[in-house]
Amino acid sequence: MYPLKDGKNSWQTQDAHEIYRNPWIALTEYKVLRPDGQPGIYGVVAFANQAIGIVAVDAEGRIALVGQWRYPLGAYSWEIPEGGGPVGTDPLEAARRELQEETGLQAESWEPLLRMHLSNSVTDEEALIYVARGLAQGQAQPEGTEDLSIAWVTLEEALELIQEGRITDAMSVAALQAWALRLLRK
To answer: Is residue 146 predicted with pLDDT exceeding 90?
Structure first.
């Protein structure tokens, strides 16, 4: 293990002002003293939900991908099943719900795979990713904002899709690579 020593907080908050809030995010502007002692501002987006991702692996080792149009990107995106759960609630329950909603799948076994922070220079968003196995197909119940396609790929295909730039979602890229590393270590 690498000997890592955490540094100290060299930022000083002088004032905070909430700029915007909706049911999903809040934007706060902070007046700060930067690490160099100079005054500045810092904008932080706080999320009401914790990001949840699922690497759903079937009996043949294939992985479920979900395709959907991502409005902020103006592009179609292939991803692992993802969603969110309110901060402070059981993330595994949110993962079960999201997998069933988006794919119709239910899993017999769940294991944590990865914890990560998304865009941590401007947000506090945390993501938890699970591996789901022992899958049984049921009926998907996507939300009204979701028009989803489902595809099954091998891990090798998924990694190639990352290399080709066809899978660009940060949680999906990290989750699929973490799953590949876990399998290599076995």
So the answer is: no
Q: Is the pTM of this model over 0.85?
A: yes
Answer yes or no: do 30 and 87 share one domain: no
Gyration radius (Cα) of the chain, Å: 19
Q: Which helix (H) or strand (E) holds 156?
A: helix 155-163
Q: Counting every residue, how long is the chain?
A: 186
Q: Would residue 1 count as lying in a domain?
A: no
- Whether the pLDDT of residue 121 is over 80: the answer is yes
Please tell me the predicted confidence (pLDDT) of residue 181. 96
* Statement to judge: residues 98 and 154 lie in one domain: yes
Domain that residue 22 falls in:
12-46
pLDDT in tens, 2-45: 788 889 999 999 999 999 999 999 999 999 999 999 999 999 99
Answer whether residue 3 is part of any domain: no
Per-residue CA distances from 26 to 33, 79, 135 (Å):
22, 25, 36
For residue 163, give the 3-state DSSP assignment. helix
Spatial contact of 113 and 129, defined as CB atoms under 8 Å apart: yes
Q: Count CA within 13 A, CB hemisphere, residue 161.
A: 23
Strands 82-86 and 75-79: unpaired
Q: Is 4 part of any domain?
A: no
Whether the pLDDT of residue 143 is over 90: the answer is no
Gap between the Cα atoms of 98 and 162, Å rounded: 23
